[in-house]
Amino acid sequence: MQNKYNLEGPQGTKPRKRLSGTNIMLYGTLLVVAFYYLLPLYVMVTTSLKGMPEIRAGNIFDLPVDITFEPWVKAWSTACTGLNCDGLSRGFWNSVSILVPSVALSIAIASVNGYALANWKFKGSEVFFTILIFGAFIPYQVMLYPIVILLREVGLMGSLWGLVVVHTIFGMPILTLLFRNYFTSLPDELFKAARVDGAGFWGIYFQVMLPMSLPIFVVAMIIQVTGIWNDFLFGVIYTKPDIYPMTVQLNNIVNSVQGVKEYNVNMAATLLTGLVPLIIYFASGKLFVRGIAAGAVKG
C-alpha cells in the first residue's frame, strides 16, 4: 500500500542564510547611510549642550563634560533675531498661527477635490486634473512677483493670512493627486452602494470616504506640516519682521554678525526649529507608511 505521507523530505525553497553576501552589503549600506545622517545630528546635540569654553577647545566630536541647557534657554527666549532679542518664542507662535490654518484649509479643499475627481466624473475633469498637476511642476520662483502683486491688490501682503493663502494654493496640486489616487484605490462598490441608498455628494464623503481615509490624511498632514514649517522663502517674502516665522528668525540668529559667534546657541536654535515636524512624523509614522502603501502613490 502506497504511503499517504510524503517522506521525500522538506519541500519549498531553501531558507537564506542570515549572513549572506547580499545581506552584508544591504545592512552595510544602511549603516553607512545612517551614520552619514546621524553624525551631523550628534554634533548639533552635543554642541548645543556645551559651554563656549569647551567649544573653543575644538573637540567637536567629544561628549560635553559639563552639560548646560543655557544655550537652549537663550535660543528660545533672549537670542537676538534682528532688532528684537526675544529668541525664537515669537517666531514659534507665528509659525503655529501660519501652520494650523494652512494645513487645515489645504487638506480640506484637496480632499474634496480628490474625492470629486475620483468618484464624480464631470466633463473636462481629466483636463482639469492635468492642469492642476502641471502647476505642481512650475518653479516657485516664477510666481513670486505675481503673487506679491495679487496679495497687495487684495490687501493681504505682509500678513499671516496672506502667507496662509500662499501655502494653501501651493499645496493643492500634490495633495489633490494623493487624495484622488487614494479614493480611486477604494472599492467602487462602496460608492455605488451608497448611491443606491440615496446618499448624495456630501453624505458619501462624510459617511463613507472619511472614515476609511485616516492613513491618507496623515500622509497629507505630514507633507504639509513639513513643507510649511520648514519654509523660508515664502515666509521672508510675504510677511514682515514682526510676524516672521520661526525659520526666518533662525536665519537671523545664525547669520548675526554682532558680538561673539555662539555656536551652541545656533545649534540649539536649529534643533528647536526642527522639533515640530520631527515629533509629528515619529508620532504618526506607522499611519504614514499605511497611507503610502494603500494608494497614495498609486497611479
UniProtKB/TrEMBL annotation:
**Carries keyword Membrane?**
yes
Residues in ABC transmembrane type-1 domain copies: 92-284
**Subcellular location per the Swiss-Prot or TrEMBL entry:** Cell membrane
UniProt KW keywords? Membrane, Transmembrane, Transmembrane helix, Transport
Which regions span the lipid bilayer? 24-45, 92-115, 127-148, 160-179, 200-223, 265-283
**Gene Ontology process terms (BP):** transmembrane transport
| Main location group | membrane
Q: Which InterPro entries match?
A: MetI-like, MetI-like_sf
What topology does the record note for this protein and the membrane?
Multi-pass membrane protein
A Pfam family this chain is assigned to: BPD_transp_1
Task: Please tell me one Gene Ontology term that the record gives under cellular component.
Answer: plasma membrane
Family of the protein in this entry:
Belongs to the binding-protein-dependent transport system permease family.
Q: What is this protein called?
A: Carbohydrate ABC transporter permease
Record the organism. Answer: Halocynthiibacter halioticoli
